[in-house]
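HUMAN: Mind making up another protein with tokenized structure?

ASSISTANT:
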Amino acid sequence: MKHEDFRTRVRKKTEGLREVEGACGICHGTLEAITEEKGVVSAYERSEGILAVVKDDSGDVIGEGFDIVWSSAILAAELDAKLVPERFEEKLREALSEEDEIRAIADVYGYGRVVTPSVIALQYVKDLGGKTVIRREKIGVVARLYDGSGNLIAQSPVSYCPTCAIVKAIVKNDELKDFVKDRLKNARNTGKIKFEEGVENRYIAKGGAVKASIIKGEKWLAKNVLGCCIAYSTTKAEIAAGLVPEESAKRFKAYCNLCPMKHCWMEKSMGAMGNIVLHRLSEIGMEIEVTSEGFIVAKIPGEGFVGRGTLCSLSALTNMLLTSDGSKLLKPSPAKRFPNAEE
């Protein structure tokens, strides 16, 4: 009965979430509701991906989920705990990873690390003279990879976010999969280090932002490190805990120094805002090309719009909106039902 009371309180807070915010935005909005109701959300690295656990305000486990990265695993746990609005449940499950996808991605580079293989795939496609494009479909994102002749070489299913979509596309093409796997065979894997250390990643969210902590036993290696999403706050927490090489830490700091979002936070997660932009761009038929140029970069070919992100194209799209002429980018539809102003 006490579990149901917690669920009721959380679901009451999540009822205002909208489908346009996408799987990522809904996940973060639900995390914020869990935090407000004193629940606990944790994630743990495993060889095949990430195990996420949701506890209620009594400390009892009410949901578990497993997926390829922290964020989507947390969404799976939120769904298992029945904390997400019922009207979204079926659509959100479609954006999660199938067991065979999880195993295939882990075979390339496991322990919940998806950005590094995605960046290698982006460069692979670029070297072919091709392009990687993303599109909002249903409640998630689909990535399509093309060679230099415009032939489709890989396509993802509907996925949690653009990075998840790209890494899922990798395992749809044997040649690309083998290339990425070979490039990573001797690479340092921070997720594996964390698994071997037996650490817990713990999250709280408020006002659209996320704070991540890394805990080993009774020791807090990093505490309440602020980031614009689950993935980025975890990465910053890894930096604070000394788990990430200094060169990578400098690159992430350089991005934060340039990001204008911190001065105009709108009480929504970066994933929600990026999804809203992506939804509109897909709606008006814009093609969003994704590349890696130190940071993740989103471009609209022929239009001159460019956005720079951290680990994900959703942050790049939010950056694109903030640094562009919004009217030219989103092409607002004509006003409707405007009283006494007939043209």
